[in-house]
Amino acid sequence: MNAFTPPPSFTTRPTLRGGFGMVSSTHWIASACAQAVLERGGNAFDASVAGGFVLHVVEPHLNGAGGDMTAIVSAHGCSPKVLMGQGPAPAGATIEHFRAEGLDMVPGSGALAAAVPGAVDAWLLLLLERGTWELRDVLAYAIDYARGGHPISGRAAATVGAVAGLFREHWPSSAALWMPEGVPPRENQLVRNPAYADTLERLIEAGGRPEHAGGAGIGPDEGEPGRRARIEAARREWADGLVANAAGALAGTVHRHSTGTDHRGVITAADFAGFRASFEPAAMLEFRGTTLAKTGPWGQGPVLLQTLAILAGFGDERLDPSTELGAHTILEALKLAMADRDAYYGDPAEPEAVPLRILLSENYAAQRRGLIGDAASHEFRPGSVPGHTAYLPPLATEAEFRASTAGAEGETGAAGEPTVSRLGETRGDTCHIDVVDRWGNMVAATPSGGWLQSSPTIPELGFCLGTRLQMAWLDPDAPSALRPGGRPRTTLTPTMLLRDGRPVAALGSPGGDQQDQWQLLYLLRTIVGGYTAQEAVDAPMFHTTSVAGSFWPRTWEPGGAVAEDRLGGDVVAGLRRRGHRVSLAGEWALGRMCAVGRESDGTLYAAANPRGMQGYAAGR
């Protein structure tokens, strides 16, 4: 008998089912465009690339071409691979340089925090290696919306409004793009970005240039070799052409950062030229007959695996997120896994420096499980790994941070990632898109960074640089220390599920440090509780804030937790009696899940987040 709380008798939407193809994303326009690609004969990889570039246009406050992207991808019957679109720190991004600038932390906004953009090259690599469509056809959707306009969402418009003063006073190029009439746009106002449309068209045009085609223009009818050559030419244009030169030039100008001080970036055209996206093996763990595929420890992906390894030793009654005992157990397990993330994860020069094999072992999980008692922990408790020293990051609450910066110049209004605040206030998220096609190909992709409030807009390109370096510590002893050429420890963490070696689901969520936390609740409810995909997406969400934040100013709240009101008064009261400092976020405020899948009989399904009324699934 299932010990889980039964799902509600209704859901906000149906779990979509069919046999042709399914898409779920954080914006309905991206879902519609990706499904249109499937309808025209494209595969899941073609569709996800088209949807990904559309997300740059329609969710500019949540991602952009100057940001990053991580995906888990699988061709039908093949093992999943990680598509790594996380660019590294520029050659000039040294701890010594930041210290010389008077900084003890990487800023949350401004080009000094820019890693090399990785999203565009990652999407192009996916199209090159797994797709079937021509680049011009895939990019046509994004170009149309950038040049012709799209109705801006309320949250995007509000984001522009929140940073309007910064734009007017310090970032005039951003004001020119996002406030051409001198005021922030209204919800549903048609907004355009012709410069970004021009940038995408330049990538397409690069394929016809003799210098990119080995001496002769590439014709439109040369089949697969010609298609691949055109995409490779676009990749070179991105890394070595106008894009790289324009980005490096603007980054090198002095401008305001989230610290309230002025700096110039260090990224150059040479940094662009030195990066290429790649495919990597996934980190894997089996839980209750389902294998999960995640990124390596250069991202936070193994946090989900560690948490499930800890929870695997408990009975079902302790895994139900809708009960006091279950929520308490889950929160405590998350704290332990997240502490290990900050103590051990990173992208060091020597990969074996991260002891992932031990962190995912049954013996280690059992040791960590034994630390979960009846009361909430308010401590930072990384585990002990032989031969490795656990890093203890500098921890300060938000109140302590504000007190330490009292008297400094005011905030810019562009601090950190636009995600859910410590108190549950919703300020936006990142993006996500999942696709499964009739052949069983699957993609789970989380693009982020380069949001419009990251750094000044590059006028001729129509986008700005991201700020992923804020993940890195300015402490050489940290496993995620800032290191030229090293990848900042990203929070982007899509998931793929396998049974009997075959991919069966692709899923993910925006939300920074909350991404794996919200995915965990979805997985427990579907794998253990028997919920349908939409039931699990709709169910009440919560997360811990008792972690070292990944985004500037990197605060934590000991024993803190944020929950949707629908979790229930009795459950919340019980958590508080156990010592959890629970803040309520509202009825429908947390979680941004997207999911698609393939059942054993070949039926495809999809579900999407109803919160915010932007995410939708499509399919048939």
Shape: globular
Q: Based on DSSP secondary structure assignment, what is the total number of beta strands?
A: 21
Question: Alpha-carbon distance between the termini?
Answer: 33 Å
Given helix and strand content, the structural type is alpha+beta
Biggest sheet record: 7 strands, antiparallel
Radius of gyration: 23 Å
Number of helices: 20
Can you characterise this structure?
By secondary structure, the chain is an alpha+beta fold. It is 33% helix and 15% strand. The protein has 20 helices and 21 strands. Strands 1-20-19-15-14-11-10 form a seven-stranded antiparallel sheet. The protein has a seven-stranded antiparallel sheet with strand order 9-4-3-13-12-2-21, with helices on one face. Strands 16-17-18 form a three-stranded mixed sheet. A hairpin with a 5-residue loop joins strand 7 and strand 8 (262-263). It is globular, with a radius of gyration of 23 Å. Residues 211-220 and 408-428 have low confidence and may be disordered.
Which helices and strands occur, and which strands form pairs?
Blueprint: E1 16-18, E2 21-25, H1 28-39, H2 44-58, E3 68-74, E4 81-85, H3 95-100, H4 119-130, H5 135-148, E5 150-151, H6 154-162, H7 164-169, H8 172-178, E6 190-191, H9 194-205, H10 223-240, H11 242-251, E7 255-256, E8 262-263, H12 269-273, E9 278-281, E10 283-287, E11 290-294, H13 302-311, H14 324-344, H15 356-359, H16 362-369, H17 398-404, E12 433-437, E13 442-448, E14 495-499, E15 502-508, H18 515-528, H19 533-538, E16 542-544, E17 560-563, H20 569-577, E18 581-584, E19 594-598, E20 604-608, E21 616-619
Helix pairs in contact: 1-2, 2-4, 2-5, 4-10, 5-9, 9-10, 10-11, 13-14, 13-16, 13-18, 14-20
